[in-house]
Fold these 4 entries.
Entry 1:
Amino acid sequence: MNHNPRRFSIRNIILGLGLIASLAGVVAFVRTKASSGPVRFGRRWSRNLRVLQLATRTSGSWVSWKARRTFADAGARREIDTRFEMKTATQITEALGEMKGALMKIGQMASYLDQGLPEHVRAVLAELQHNAPPMSAELAAGVIISELGDSPDQIFAEWDPIPIASASIGQVHRALTHEGNAVAVKVQYPGVAEAIASDLDNASLIFTGLGFLFPGLEQEAIVSELRQRLVEELDYDNEARNQDLFRTAYLDHPTIHVPRVFHEYSTARVLTTELADGVHWDEMLTWSQDEKNLSAETLYRYAFGSLFRLAAFNGDPHPGNYLFRPGGQITFLDYGLVKRFTPTEVIDFGDMIKSVVLKPDKAEFRSIVERIGLLPAGLDVPDEAVFDYLKHFYDFVHEDGVYTITPEFGSESIRRIFDTTGPFTKIQKAANVPPSFVVIQRINLGLYSMFGELNATGNWRRLAEEIWPFVDGPPSTPMGLEIERWARDRHPNAKGAMLSR
């Protein structure tokens, strides 16, 4: 039997969600039963029950699809497949969108992560990027009253009760301040903190399951890091501080725009920022290849420039967090999930690059990987195998020349992490994700998938050498020259490359 790889991808997502949902629901039931006698259908149980119901619905659709497909001819099978995929994707989108929290982030990632997903499925899941079901106008107004002390119609000169975006933690409304500033007001969903806590409890179970496949994972450290980052994301005061950090670094940058925070209209559960304009990811994908390349260049400069020059990484890189304008101009939204790195951690990232790209040395690379904790010392595999396994993630910067990042590159990045049926099984099963790598893995799992969808083309090696502080190369593109002029104007007495190259 010939397997359709596109159908295999959506099947894996469906069955994976079903497995996770079933496990979470069953364990939640057992926990509740053991700890409190009769089952109480409180908020956390209700949430786990909804996840279990999602698993039941998708599993039922799967059985029905299998039965119908068995007796259909080739043409009818294609139609049955499409109907099944659409129905299941819609079920998942509706359920995760209503539940919000960490589970909704899974759906957001699925919408752009797997390049094998059929386009009609990706389109449905993409609604989770910035268009999830919103809370009512009354609930949003209630949060404003409790946080800012009065109704939104009084706090602001103008208030639009219909949200312009809704995501995993909160939703965004347009407003006009009494000072005449057009703003975006992010209002946190009531109860989302409890939802995140429930999801994080279940995350421990999920990583326990992954431990059977990947024994090298230090599960408690990974869950602890995720818990810390997601709890920080619930604190809009913390997000405002993160956004101030990035805005100061990129103020008046030629292509990177970070909206201003209006602190007088912000609290721990309400965040008011400058209202930005631009088009969303799906519209940008219709632009010319040259324009898409410019967008990719800015995304690269922002992610890696911030990592190496600011020692910070905005850890939620997905298409719903960007607004695009021609010429590579991008507004970067959402600073809730920001990882700040120690100087030692940044040096570790640089040491890996030096030993795999600049001066390839397989033994040195192996020793760095072991020192950081990605692999245990003494694993019975040759240095060459370790080098070949991880070198893929640096392929597009390895040579000085034009390189197109294809969808296959993004898919291979994901396979290198999760597919244990290939030649690197022993390495994968022994590999760990130390805390400093947990959030930054979103580059491999998200950013490279987006670059693949863009077919992003450029001389990435020279662009990288501009950004790497241990190379500090000259501008390699027209955008680089603009940035150099901007940096010189900001710091006329400074020497060498500036932060935001």
Entry 2:
Amino acid sequence: MPRQDPGSTIWFTLTIDGESLGYFNGCEGLSSHVEVEQRQEGGNNGFVWQLPTRVSYSNIRLTRPLTPDTAKVAKWISSVQTGIKRPTAQISALRADGSLVARWGLIEVLPVSWQGPSLDPASPAVATEVLEIAHHGFTD
């Protein structure tokens, strides 16, 4: 079995209900948090019960240099104005050769914000965009 290089470049793809929004080179916020309620049992001083109450999910921020796929993101964000439909999404992490590292399914995805590039001739940096999405949990 060939050894995989964990330091290789990773790319991310975002797919909304089967439609690709393109490749991203940054992905932050794939996380969840379980709130825990503590209950003390009468007569038992040896421990405290840790009971899960609710799970919350952080927003996910995807970043990339500006590409023609930006129009797909704008179209998706504009579709929110005509009625909220919360689709299923997938984020896939791919190696430089295109092979799959990991995939996350997301339930009821909603675009939260989009930030376009700063177009300043005094600062000739790479034009980037940031897409932030919210979701209601992970799925297969």
Entry 3:
Amino acid sequence: MPIRAALVDLDGTIWENPVRFSAVREALGLPLDGRPILAGIAELPPPERERALAVLASHERYGVERGRLRPGAEELLLSLRAQGVKTALVTNNSRESAEAVLARHPLPFDLVLTRDDGPVKPDPEAFLRPLGQWGIGPGDALVLGDSHLDLQAAHGAGISRVILVRPPEWTRAYFPEGASFREVASLPEAFVLLRALLNP
């Protein structure tokens, strides 16, 4: 089946973020339980929740200011566009952070979806929503991410073509059993794999 849409993660995938979110969890007293950090924050009492959201926002701003675009990101996205593939940035980050990154690096995304816009990964709707807007089925989509949340959302959405870029070791414990994915060490390596998938 052809690839008509690529759903791309931000932090850890195309954006080198110096913030270790496992350390942010520890600072907030949240367990490393495989859930999105937002799920843990949502369960805190209101005063603690507000403080935790402020801490998270502060770390996200730092990640934008001190982070950098991963080598090969622009070339990969431009290649997808040249092949007529729709691209969506799908991130659990805030819209403010995503737009700040794109202001520095105006990457050719057709759609940008953040946690401020609807369901977040690992909810399959995070991927099904953009596909629905384009009238594209999961069988014609590809996910490019770096963690269990990307793989869980893709698996739940019925997307079998998934490329993970250097997933952190601790996330492997939360990979869905039987989920299909390919693993690469860098975006240039992902680019080579994508070209093979686009031109079988």
Entry 4:
Amino acid sequence: MPPEKAALPLTDLQAGRRVFIDANIFIYHFTGLSQECSSFLERCERGDLWGVTAVHVLLEVLHRLMMIEAVTKGLVAPGNVAKKLRNRPDVIKQLTNYQTQTEMILEMGIEVMDLTTDSLKISHPYRHRYGLLVNDSLIAGAMETEGISDIATADPDFTRVEGLHVYSPLDLPKK
């Protein structure tokens, strides 16, 4: 497996580039945890960058924002939030912000790629060669299909993938 390379600062993306956007960039924007992510998405909305994502990424954003909203509103305690919500459909009915926020992505001028059965076949070598999880391998496969080499993400796993230029926010809270 190729060695990981350092991610580049998200702010270094040059104008006019076509860049794939991972779910965590949207999450950090909507939760207010990264001004760099918000500024990056504003650049996409202005047309300074050509932002691209995929439908499965939007589904991940939708799910994660639902979990965050439930905890933030104090409707469930942190820890295994999905299981808690599954047992409390009354709480799910009270959640709306996650849907509104995810729909805002569609208004940002970001291209959304479909997921196809071919995506599954194309993604397998990325799991096998680079040890990526399924959603990440689907992203790498989609990027290959579309000829995209730049990715905006806070996920260091993508730095293992040869041929990708990984751009990450530097203003995230330290874990």
